[in-house]
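Usage

Read records sequentially. Each one opens with the input sequence:
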Amino acid sequence: MKSIYFTLIISLYLYFAQAKTIYGSDLKSPGIGILIHKTLNPHGERLHFPENLALKVYNSKKNIIGEISSLNSNVILSINNSKTFVKTEMIAYDGLAIIIYSTSENFYEIKSESINFPIWLNKSDLTKNDLKYFLWNNFLLQYQKHLYPLIPLNLRSIPDKNGNKIVLVKNQKFEIILTGQISENWAKVNVNEYSDDEQDCGSNAKVLNKYSGWLKITDDNGTPNVWFYPKGC
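and closes with the structure output:
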């Protein structure tokens, strides 16, 4: 079952990469974090933007231009009677979070699927409605400690690209376990290398090797280089 999830995620990743090359458009710009309701459990089902909530959205001059709300689990942006989807990320089984692309003193930037100008949420509006912003590293550290490489990653001795290479972590046979230490885009991790890719999060599987070191778990834009099973381990 989990190999199916892996195949699906990798297929989607390759699709977006190919689509960006073909069409020359940024279908999913690099994000630096996500927005979720702070009372909801990211491991559970039905994790979505609250159905009964509408939030004002602003332009670059910080004037109100519309609102976002939820419809059938999708986040909808409404501007001048025109509707489009807000860009989101799957972070749990049947659970979506709004991607935050940049921040300013009082605002967070979000993006839609079809509008190419910046759209902003007011931080005070989010606070009033118990919506919480997570940097990707902090979200992964708090909620998703068992991870897998989305792209081949070098495990290194120090949190630096010039650190000594320990092993190339490159497929589902490698399980990445966060230790709690973070240094910018890097995380101190323990890595289990299993005999095959059906290791089911370590259950009834043969461990070939164990490693410790540092992995760059987010890229220079803040987008994850790792992924996790949406249904959890």
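Summary fields computed downstream for this record:
- The mean pLDDT is 81.
- The longest strand covers residues 174-183.
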